[in-house]
Specification:
Blueprint (H helix, E strand, L loop, with lengths): L2 H4 L20 H12 L3 H8 L5 H11 L1 E2 L6 H13 L7 E5 L6 E4 L5 E5 H6 L2 H17 L1 H17 L4 H33 L2 H13 L8 H13 L3 H11 L7 H12 L2 H7 L14 H18 L3 H10 L5 H10 L6 H10 L1
Parallel strand pairs: 2-4
Antiparallel strand pairs: 1-2, 3-4
Length: 354
């Protein structure tokens, strides 16, 4: 019996025995991971190419200059960690460290074995149930195998800074970093779902995200108002704002906090989430039979639905293009110049004739 199985959660929560990470992974994240796992020898080659990564250095750094979570140090975090591994049926409990940093943050890194690191800023900011969701979030990263690619991202980000004076070298590295960041933003949505499965308290997950955005001032914040911000962000502005949103998110490793909250709430209210809570979910023992084609088809379907239902002006335009809407040049001109109302009578007649 493993350490994770010896300790039941501190309060009664549903356990997901043999759960596959496919159960909670975001469609875009899941399709990429399934494809990578199905490539014979990919992980071996990937780790061989990553042989220069200073993983041992990272482990020694945290061991020497951070506090390792255990029954003797940060015991409440150790209990949460064991609980999370028990609920998600993770066989080996990862090492976990608390590092001095006033900025609230957490990460799961490592090539051979995942390490979870949380900052003092995060520990001091969140209450027990909010922190439980974060620990579950990081255990979700471990179960999905995200730590390998997160470590590569950290290394390449640092390398890009060091070779910034080499124009072509920096461009090549930044292209990879940009692609990894796009994947990692999707993986964060997956891990948020894992955090909810562990904490099984949507309000705690929402509170944690609000605190990360606005600090420890819950008496000044409101979940419904916070979610309205996400709706305003997703729907507001014109095409210029849509482009600015893309530019704003490109340097980030995480999605915007309001967007994460809205995405998590939608998933919590979905049939997929309810089926997991009812005990109907993909099993790790079935992972070898996963179809890459089906996974990509599901991902494509998800994005098609996202485009169709999105309130973002750019996504609406993409939907119109896909639907064969005419006069795209005029529509683009009007959106960017704000001239949509000019000649409205004629525009309406034209629209009616199509």
């Amino acid at each position: 019996m493993t350490e994770g199985q010896e300790h039941a959660p501190s309060r009664r929560r549903r356990r997901f025995e043999d759960i596959s990470s496919r159960a909670y992974e975001h469609p875009a994240d899941r399709s990429a991971l399934v494809a990578l796992r199905k490539l014979s020898g990919f992980d071996t080659v990937f780790k061989a190419l990553s042989g220069l990564l200073p993983e041992r250095s990272l482990r020694l750094l945290f061991l020497s200059d951070s506090v390792r979570v255990s029954d003797d140090q940060f015991a409440h975090l150790h209990t949460m960690l064991r609980d999370a591994c028990y609920i998600l049926d993770l066989e080996k409990v990862p090492a976990m460290y608390v590092t001095q940093d006033p900025k609230p943050n957490a990460m799961c890194i490592g090539l051979d074995e995942p390490i979870i690191v949380v900052t003092t800023g995060l520990v001091e900011l969140l209450d027990e149930e909010e922190m439980r969701a974060v620990v579950g979030h990081e255990v979700g990263h471990a179960l999905s195998g995200h730590s390998v690619y997160r470590t590569i991202l950290l290394f390449l980000t640092g390398l890009a800074v060091k070779v910034a004076w080499i124009p072509l070298g920096n461009v090549a590295i930044m292209a990879i970093v940009t692609a990894l960041r796009e994947w990692f933003r999707k993986s964060e949505l997956s891990a948020d779902r894992a955090g909810l499965l562990v904490g099984q308290d949507l309000q705690a997950s929402m509170r944690g995200l609000m605190k990360i955005a606005g600090g420890n001032h819950l008496h000044e914040m409101n979940v419904d108002a916070f979610l309205k911000q996400a709706e305003e962000y997703e729907a507001g502005g014109d095409l210029r704002d849509s482009v600015l949103k893309i530019l704003n998110v490109l340097p980030r490793s995480h999605p915007f906090t309001t967007v994460r909250a809205a995405e998590l709430k939608r998933w919590a209210e979905s049939r997929d989430h309810q089926r997991i809570m009812d005990g109907h979910y993909p099993r790790r023992s079935e992972d070898k039979d996963t179809s890459v084609t089906d996974s990509f088809r599901e991902s494509a379907s998800h994005y098609a639905d996202s485009v169709r239902t999105s309130k973002d002006p750019l996504m609406k335009l993409v939907g119109d293009i896909a639907g064969g809407a005419g006069d795209l040049g005029g529509r683009l001109r009007d959106k960017f110049t704000g001239a949509a109302g000019a000649g409205g009578g004629n525009g309406g007649a034209t629209s009616g004739e199509r």
